[in-house]
Design brief:
Shape: elongated
Oligomer: single chain
Order of helices and strands: EEHHEEEEEH
Number of strands: 7
Strand content: 35-45%
Number of helices: 3
Distance between the termini: 48 Å
CATH topology: YaeB-like fold
CATH architecture: 2-Layer Sandwich
Length: 118
């Protein structure tokens, strides 16, 4: 899977989360480029711009949370704008109110060894 799409670069972590959560690159592109809401997550390590401090290259960048509802799914992305590249670096993604898909092996083990009440 390529780590870029249009004006977005995805971290390995973001790609793994997207795969686990059945989120397409196009959906995240829509979230970041046309969000319903954007804000800076609360952090004890904020910079003067009000965003998270991220060490990307030699400079500190500001990450923001982007939210968009598409077809009854509430998508979220944490991304940093990279002005030199004119692209967004997506750090993580999720769908609010949905659990991650569980690995089938762990699901079977959990079912086999869960406490049964009689």
């Amino acid at each position: 899977m390529s780590n870029s799409y249009k004006n977005i670069i995805f971290t390995k972590h973001a790609l793994e989360r997207m795969d686990k959560r059945s989120i397409s690159k196009d959906k995240i592109w829509q979230v970041v480029n046309h969000p319903d809401k954007t804000f800076t997550p609360k952090s004890a390590d904020k910079n003067d711009s009000g965003g998270y401090k991220n060490n990307i290259g030699n400079s500190k960048k500001v990450s923001r949370k982007y939210l968009k509802k598409i077809s009854d799914r509430k998508y979220q992305a944490i991304a940093t704008y990279l002005p030199k590249e004119k692209k967004y670096l997506v750090i993580s993604t999720c769908v609010r109110g949905e659990d991650d898909k569980q690995n089938i092996i762990w699901w079977i083990i959990k079912k086999l060894f869960s406490k049964r009440t009689y």
